[in-house]
Design goal:
0% strand
């Protein structure tokens, strides 16, 4: 018969052994980091994979290995590394944040978008969250064509997505397609009648184009949602022109 104390000691020993197995290898990560810094992509990928084997929850190891594979145009291994990370419970958001940061760090931002496109094609169940990140990234980069492309893709899957509607509106406005932008903002208001950004965008457009009669209701409602001195002054000036 195993005594309770003996069983507890055995369990603690087992937990300690598992923790030791999963412990990060700082020397290995340092060696991988040197290879990465020297652009020795094949060696760095192999070393980071070894580090991930030792510590399956190490986000940095997976992210940098993925970057290495992407630079070497080994898309199968790049996608496989992302899948492997998620299989070990590394959150997708952490992976994507790391990939974006690393791509910027090495001054190859195109790697980020390429990876997300490739991952979406190979893992269709991740298409929507990846498209969302691509859409937001395009908006951050102020790339109207990419904004339009990804927003349209998002809306094809979920027509009521007001974030995608708003980004599509901005893309159309950036391209000088103002009538389409107003239609997009109207769609936002149909879904969220008190959306202050949509109210202001439409009101400002009509104010700039000299249509104070159409501008005022939108600006007044925006002011009712959240009052600011700037909008109050706009309303005052527009009323004075009537």
């Amino acid at each position: 018969m195993i005594r309770p104390v003996s069983l507890l000691i055995a369990l603690l020993a087992a937990v300690g052994a598992d923790a030791a197995t999963a412990a990060p290898d700082s020397a290995l990560m340092a060696k991988a980091g040197r290879a990465y810094a020297d652009c020795e992509w094949a060696s760095a990928a192999a070393l980071y994979n070894m580090a991930a084997d030792k510590d399956p929850g190490d986000t940095e190891a997976y992210v940098r290995a993925t970057i290495c594979y992407a630079i070497r145009k080994d898309t199968a291994e790049a996608v496989g590394t992302i899948e492997r990370a998620m299989a070990h419970a590394v959150p997708l958001d952490s992976i994507l944040k790391g990939l974006r940061s690393e791509a910027f760090e090495i001054k190859k931002p195109e790697i980020y978008t390429g990876l997300l496109e490739t991952a979406g094609n190979n893992m269709p169940w991740l298409r929507r969250p990846l498209d969302m990140q691509l859409m937001r990234y395009a908006a951050y980069r102020r790339d109207p064509e990419a904004m339009e492309r990804y927003a349209a893709r998002m809306l094809a899957g979920m027509p009521g997505d007001t974030e995608a509607m708003a980004i599509l509106a901005k893309a159309h406005a950036m391209q000088g397609r103002f009538d389409e932008a107003i239609t997009d903002w109207q769609r936002v208001l149909a879904a969220k009648p008190d959306d202050r950004r949509a109210l202001l965008e439409i009101g400002n457009y009509y104010a700039i184009t000299g249509d104070s009669e159409r501008a005022l209701p939108y600006l007044e409602k925006a002011q009712a949602v959240k009052a600011t001195p700037y909008v109050a002054e706009m309303i005052h000036k527009l009323r004075a022109t009537q």
